[in-house]
Amino acid sequence: MTPEPLNALLNVIDVEATCWEGPPPAGQVSEIIEIGVCVLDLRTLERVERRSLLVRPERSQVSAFCTALTSLTPEAVAAGLTFPEACGVLRREYRSDSRPWASWGDYDRRQFQRQVGQAPYPFGARHTNAKAVYAAAFGLPRPGMAQALVHAGLPLVGTHHRGGDDAWNIAALIAHLVRRGHWPAAAAAVPRGH
């Protein structure tokens, strides 16, 4: 493996988790059922890879509410990876333990931290909350991803609340921030007019 330039690539992560219309049923907890990954090249601002890893829950079931929100069915996630296997893919294929990463808000980071008993935490310390950066850059209350896309004049690609599609869209918002000089890790790496 050739070393990549410092901060050249950014992993954009979006997770979907088991959820219910009300509180979780007795004995169930919210668990990651999909990890969306989009690799953004911070030099070219191109989204160079997009992937969705389905993850099999161990302590919860995919509810009808969750399927309606995400389009993920119990059968689809039952065929997914275990959480430790998915974390291994992130480390091996996306260098998640050394590459900087971002998510829209802190929910995704916190969800991984809640599940670390099942597998080692797959990420390094360099996390950026893209929602907070976007809100500060444009003086907005913290917008949802879809609202930020409208604000930025960017299309919502794919299905909202699917990890791979949401990671792709979040990467477009990060590229929008970089172009305007608002992305903290990229300010020195990318020319302002790019």
From TrEMBL:
Coiled-coil residue windows: none
Protein name as annotated: Inhibitor of KinA sporulation pathway (Predicted exonuclease)
Gene3D superfamilies: Ribonuclease H-like superfamily/Ribonuclease H
SUPFAM superfamilies named in the record: Ribonuclease H-like
Gene Ontology MF term list: exonuclease activity
Organism lineage: Bacteria, Thermotogati, Deinococcota, Deinococci, Deinococcales
Swiss-Prot/TrEMBL keywords: Exonuclease, Hydrolase, Nuclease
Database matches in CDD domains: ERI-1_3'hExo_like
Top-level taxon: Bacteria
Domain (Exonuclease) ranges: 9-183
The species this protein was found in: Deinococcus enclensis
